[in-house]
Amino acid sequence: MANGKFAGGDGSKDNPFLIEDAFDLDKVRDNLSASYKLIRDIDLNIKPFNEGEGWKPIGGVNNSFQGDFDGDGHIIKNLYISVKNEDYIALFGYCSLRQSNFIKNLKIKDADIIGGNYVSALVGMLNQGNIECVCVIDSNIKSLKNSGSLIGQINNQPVTLKNSYSSNTKVESEQDDTGGLSSFIGNSSTIQNVYVCNIVKGKGCSEAITPRCDSEGNYGFFNCYYNIDNFSTSKYCTGKTTEQLKKPSTFKDWQSEKLEDQTPIWILKEGQYPKLWFEVEKHFLLNQSRHLYSIKNTILSQLDESEPTEELFKKDGFDDEQLLNLDKFDGQVEMKYEGKCCDGELFSYKIGDWIKNIKIK
C-alpha cells in the first residue's frame, strides 16, 4: 500500500497520481489542481476516517478542488462525516472545476453523512465542470438544509451531470431544499441520462430530483427519471414506476451512450435497474497449470474444458472475490472474469485455518 505516497503518476492529466488506499485519497487535499485516478476500491472504515467527525471534505470555499478525479470504475465505501454545524460537506466539499475538468467513473456506497448546508455524498458545492458515470447507493445523508444525494448544490456556472444515478439512499433536511439529486440546479446546467430512486424528506421544499432551479431557466433536463413509487411528483423529470425502471425499453435513448473504446456506458437488463459500465457482475474461475477450476459449496472442482469458456463462466463462475484467496496456493494464478483474463501474481499466503474448509475434488 502507498499509505499517502501515491502508487505512481505525477499529477498531470496524462499521468495522474494513482490512489490505492484511504491515505492516498486523503492526500488529494494537498494538491487541489492535480489529476487523480483510483486503482483500487477504497474502504474508509479505518482510523482516523471512521472516528470523531470522520472524513474531512476535500476543498473549501477559499481552497476549492479544481483538478480531475477518475474513479476508473472503483468504489469508495463507508464514507463517514458527522459535523452538523459545518457547510460544504461531502467527499469533495467545494469544487470549482474548469469546463474541461471532471469527476467520473466512481461509485460511492454506504456513506453516512451529517452536515449543515450543502451536503451530499459526492460534492457539497459544485461550480462548473463535468460529472459523468457516477453513482451513490445505499447511503444516508442528513442536513439542516440544501442537501442532495450526489451534489448539495450546483451554482450558476456551466455544469454537465451525465450518465449517473442514485438509489436506495435517504436524503433528509431539517428545514428546506432537499433533493434526491441536488438541492438546486443553477444556470447553464445540463442534466442528462440520470435516474433517482431515493427517499427524500424535508420539512420545507423537497423534490425527487431537485426542489429548485435557477429562475432564468437556462438549464436542461434530458432523459431523466425518478421512481414515482417513492415520490409522487417532480417539476423537472419524468416519473416511472419501479417496474418501468427495470425495463430496458424505458431507457432506449441511453443505449447509444458509449465510452471512447465503444463500451456501452449503461448495462440495461430486464428486471433490474440500469447499472453503469463498471458494475458488471463478476464471475470468477481459477486457472492453474492451464486447468480451470470453480468453487461450489466449498469444493474446488476442475471443470470440463471441452465446453466453451463462455458457457463455463455462465454455469460455474462464482462471484465471491474473497474466495480468490484460494491463491493462497503459493504461486501464480490467473483470475478470469466476464470472459476476460488478467494475469497476476496473487498474494502468497500460507494455508490457514479458513482455507482448510475448502475441499479439493
Automatic annotation (TrEMBL):
Taxonomic superkingdom: Bacteria
Protein name: Uncharacterized protein
